[in-house]
UniProtKB/TrEMBL annotation:
Location of this chain's protein in the cell: Cytoplasm
Gene Ontology terms, MF aspect: ATP binding; tRNA(Ile)-lysidine synthase activity
Catalytic activity annotation: cytidine(34) in tRNA(Ile2) + L-lysine + ATP = lysidine(34) in tRNA(Ile2) + AMP + diphosphate + H(+)
GO cellular component terms given for this protein: cytoplasm
Gene giving rise to this polypeptide: tilS
Name recorded for this polypeptide: tRNA(Ile)-lysidine synthase
Length: 446
């Protein structure tokens, strides 16, 4: 028994040195505590290592309200922490706020969001080797790509998550609980095989482990190998991005990337979407994107819906990620001195007070600026030595993409168009060199 006890402590110590110490992270550990066997063992083990590793630990319980016993579990966790003199707090979440994700998905998303709010250090969860095997098998069943099949990393820098038990099997954790007589709760929902993970754990994996005793270890090893493959794909995409993207990652050069094969193009687009935090589309959508890119003739349209509110579109020789305007109705907004105004398409119009650049404060006087989208027929004169032009003519000569023109905000004083972002200020309203003025900027995420 002593060997197994030491094995768990050794595994946590090794994981800490390889991930937390190596990353030069402060030794502040926030434990995600449910009261179950795994998280209770993790808390007891970290408490044993506290002095050796100079850890500052705190435990957090997230109350999902899904069980009639949730209040009792909260009280149990609080009492367990009090006994060990470990700081404790909790937060309630409501899974009904995210019905589209299902109970499991909503609980998981809200739990991690709550932990992120409560934590001051790295969040430690009690996922173990068997959990890793289950995750990989579930992702295989769902037809996941490399990112899904890579399953859970031991340390996730982006999410600030540390999984110190990921190389430890469930049996070792249960043995540790027996040795130290650790009391824990049994979550009744873990017996409900309507949930996919429970079905796999109760009905499928016992037979698999009986036939292949080392399956959890070998499946987890495969997840790690897949993660290495994912890292390689990410490295290739990052290298490609230097050649094919604009510096702000907003646009992708179509002509240059046409020489890439399908796998490389899809990999690059996936990387692009991930950078902008969009949900990954299906392989079918990605293959259609590649086909349109490969077959595109000069100035031909590309419009690929990759998410409910996002499309990939082409303009000139570049690909753009475009957030679809759900409300393209005409709008009128009045500016009354705010620093920033949010427009119907979620873009923003900012007003920065400066000297000699933009709309003259003196010429503006006490009049109220009206902001609206294009209606057609507008005329504009940004330079005194040039004739008045139709806005349509100016737009045709501008680098603005067609979908940007649709929601281009214009500033009026009564019927006079006085300013248009990207085109400047009407010559009669421009500030002189030392005159107070408002600089106008149109801010868009993409």
């Amino acid at each position: 028994m002593a060997v197994k006890k030491d094995a768990l402590i050794d595994a946590i110590r090794a994981s800490y040195l390889a991930n937390i110490t190596k990353q030069n992270i402060q030794p502040k550990i926030d434990i995600a505590l449910s009261g179950g066997c795994d998280s209770m063992v993790l808390m007891y083990a970290l408490n044993q290592l506290k002095d050796e590793l100079k850890l500052s630990i705190k435990a957090h319980y997230i109350h999902h309200g899904l069980s009639a016993y949730a209040d009792e579990w909260l009280a149990f966790c609080e009492a367990a922490c009090r006994k060990l003199n470990i700081p404790f707090d909790s937060m309630r979440v409501d899974t009904n706020t995210l019905p589209s994700l299902g109970i499991e998905g909503a609980a998981r998303k809200l739990r991690y969001e709550a932990l992120a709010q409560l934590s001051v250090g790295v969040i430690a969860t009690a996922h173990h080797e068997n959990d890793q095997a289950e995750t990989l098998l579930l992702q295989l069943i769902r037809g996941a790509g490399l990112k899904g099949l890579a399953a859970m990393p031991e340390y996730d820098k982006e999410k600030n998550l540390w999984r110190p038990l990921l190389r430890v099997q469930r049996q070792v954790i249960e043995d540790f609980a027996d040795i130290y007589e650790i009391v824990f709760i049994e979550d009744d929902s873990n017996e409900d095989t309507r949930f996919d993970r429970n079905f796999l754990r109760k009905n499928i994996l016992p037979q698999l482990y009986e036939r292949f005793p080392h399956a959890a270890n070998t499946i987890a090893r495969s997840a790690k190998l897949i993660a290495s493959g994912l890292d390689l794909h990410q490295s290739i995409a990052e290298s490609d991005s230097e050649s094919y993207f604009s510096k702000d990652l907003a646009r992708l050069n179509l002509m240059m990337m046409r020489d890439l094969n399908q796998e490389r193009v899809i990999n690059l687009i996936r990387w692009w979407l991930e950078k902008h935090r969009y949900k990954m589309p299906t392989l079918k959508v990605m293959q259609e994107a590649y086909k349109q890119i490969k077959d595109r003739r000069k100035d031909a349209q590309i419009n690929i819906q990759i998410a409910p509110n996002v499309s990939i579109r082409a303009y000139k020789n570049e690909l753009w990620l475009v957030e679809n305007v759900t409300n393209a109705a005409d709008f009128e907004i009045y500016w009354r001195g705010e620093d920033t105004i949010t427009l119907p398409d979620a873009s923003k119009l900012s007003f920065t007070k400066t000297i000699g650049d933009g709309i003259s404060v003196d010429k503006l006087g006490t009049q109220t600026i009206r902001i609206q989208n294009r209606r057609g027929g507008e005329r504009f004169k940004p330079a005194a030595n040039q004739p008045t032009r139709t806005l349509k003519h100016l737009l045709q000569q501008s680098p603005l993409a067609p979908w940007e023109r649709e929601m281009l905000p214009m500033l009026f004083l009564e019927d006079q168009l006085i300013a248009v972002p990207h085109f400047g200020v009407h010559c009669n309203f421009q500030a002189k060199k030392y005159e107070e003025s408002y600089q106008i900027s149109w801010l868009r995420d993409i």
